[in-house]
Design brief:
With about 270 residues, the chain is an alpha+beta fold. It has one domain (about 20-270): Creatinase/methionine aminopeptidase superfamily (Creatine Amidinohydrolase). The protein has four helices and 16 strands. A hairpin with a 2-residue loop joins strand 15 and strand 16 (about 265-270).
């Protein structure tokens, strides 16, 4: 008999609306080659930060400890956390455990064997924002969790491959969802990716589903955050009473991977890898 997965403590849930609003701008703006390099420099700090957090995320560590490591690392490399203070968000990273999809606030939660922890972080360096996330396993995880993480990674890779100037936002979303649906999982539809640059959230919004050829055309130099949020069960989500933590409505396991990517005529350029 398989043991039941232990869920992270749940707050009273109130709303199905996304916790983190997406601030829009009048239109999409392409970045110059120099600006792409600047975002990539921000992304290099972010990649190293997530590498550190992934290595430190283990049994017995609290999510608050991970948050402290992230803030110290980013500041020591000349950057600031993009999340802290954004619409009042209180931490440098988000830590979403098991059925939590995104925006979990770090605190006294102690990581345990078999958890999956989605860690999302943003860096501002010289005024340029990068945004990336990954889901890590804590100790040994079961086969279902391992498959979910692998499929979510594959769906991100598919979305990145479609991020080519001349393609559309719908092409990216369709690529992501095709991998996820083909595995029998669901993409969260209430939360989407977004443009990135001087601001954390720019145009366009980038759903993890779509019709090929639909939506805005990806212009050369456009930078977007592609971020599949995938669940074993239903795509429906709810927001906790803290106003931030978004979890699957049915309590099913979730995973989240994200990269900041530039669409160019030569193909996608990953700025956080």
């Amino acid at each position: 008999m398989r043991s039941m997965r232990r869920s992270a403590p749940r707050s009273r849930r109130q709303s199905k609306a996304p916790a983190l609003p997406v601030a829009t701008k009048p239109r999409m703006r392409a970045k110059t080659p120099g600006e792409l390099d600047a975002i990539a420099a921000s992304g290099a700090v972010l990649r190293e930060c997530l590498d550190l957090l992934a290595s430190e995320a283990r049994v017995g560590v609290t999510t608050a400890e991970l948050d402290g490591l992230a803030e110290e690392f980013i500041r020591s490399h000349g950057g600031t956390g993009a999340f802290k203070g954004y619409h009042g968000y209180p931490a440098t990273i988000t830590t979403s455990i098991n059925e939590q999809v995104v925006h979990g606030i770090p605190g006294d939660y102690v990581l345990r064997e078999g958890d999956v922890a989605s860690i999302d972080c943003g860096v501002v360096l010289d005024g340029w924002v990068s945004d990336s996330a990954r889901t890590v396993s804590i100790g040994e995880i079961d086969d279902e969790a391992g498959r979910l993480l692998e499929i979510t990674r594959q769906s991100l890779d598919a979305g990145i491959a479609a991020c080519v100037a001349g393609n559309t936002v719908g092409d990216v979303g369709h690529a992501v969802e095709s991998v996820v649906a083909g595995a029998g999982y669901a993409v969260v539809r209430a939360l989407v990716g977004h443009g990135v640059g001087r601001a954390m959230h720019e145009e366009p919004q980038v759903p993890n589903y779509g019709v090929p050829g639909s939506g805005p055309t990806l212009i050369d130099g456009l930078v977007i955050a592609i971020e599949p949020m995938v669940t074993v069960g239903s795509h429906e989500v709810v927001t906790a009473s803290d106003g931030w933590t978004v979890s699957t409505q049915d309590g099913s396991l979730s995973a989240h991977f994200e990269h900041t990517v530039a669409a160019t005529t030569a193909g996608p350029r990953i700025l956080t890898a």
